[in-house]
Structure formats: structure tokens, C-alpha cells
User: What shape does this take?
Amino acid sequence: MDELFGMPTDFEIKLMPWWIRLFAPSNTYVTFWGTLYCPDKVALDYISRNDYVPRSLFVHEACHVKQQRARGNLLWHLGYAFFKTYRYGQELYAYAVQLNYLISLGLKPDIPAFAKPLSNKDVYGYVVTYNKALKDLKELLNA
Ligand SMILES: [Zn+2]
Assistant: This one.
């Protein structure tokens, strides 16, 4: 299996259909049932680029593919949809993988800037403070 930073690359990347838009936050990538969906063609072209920032986004979404395969699609999506702590744990880990990927390239990513969306209720719908998200992220990093 082809891998990127330990994450799978053998999954489909598609434009988001209307029915995923019903529950996805606007202008975000969504990995659903092992497929990466992009909000539009620009986003699809972007995440397919071979630069480190789009690659880091790709690694984040590929991490969700790996999680979904490990847990099984049905259980993963049910847990993600209905249990805030499960959703937070899955996102926290995917953010940490994304940051570790950037760090592995010798970069110094702005970790607080990643803790902001991770703790944003409008993005993930759970209640975790910015400080908790930042602390949890730092604990998972190899930096
Ligand atoms: Zn995610």
C-alpha cells in the first residue's frame, strides 16, 4: 500500500456532493466513508498539489481514512457524529499527525494557530477550550 508519513494514499478524492454539504461545515474538506471530498474544484486542485501545506492537509485527511479503516466506517462515523469526546480525540490525533508531518520536514508550524480551529465549536461542535486543545496538541507532538 502506498503511504505518506504512515498514512494511506490509496483512496479517492472527489468533489463534495450536495448531501454531504447538508451536514459539513462550509468550505472544508470532509473524509467520509474512506473518500476525501473537496468543497470545490479549487480545493480539489489545491489538496492534490505537492507543496508542504496542501500535503499536510492531505496527511490530516488521510489520517481520517486510516482511522475509518481501523475502526470500520460505520462505527467511526457513528462515534464521530454522536460523541463529542470521540470526535475530539479523532481530530486531535489528525491535527497532531499533520503538525508532526510539517515538523518532520524541518518546519516550525504555528501550533497555537492549529489549536484555534481544533477548539472552535463552529467547526467541530464540541466544547474544548483553546488552552486544553493547545496543551493536548503539544503533548502529542514530537517537537
Ligand atoms: Zn479532521
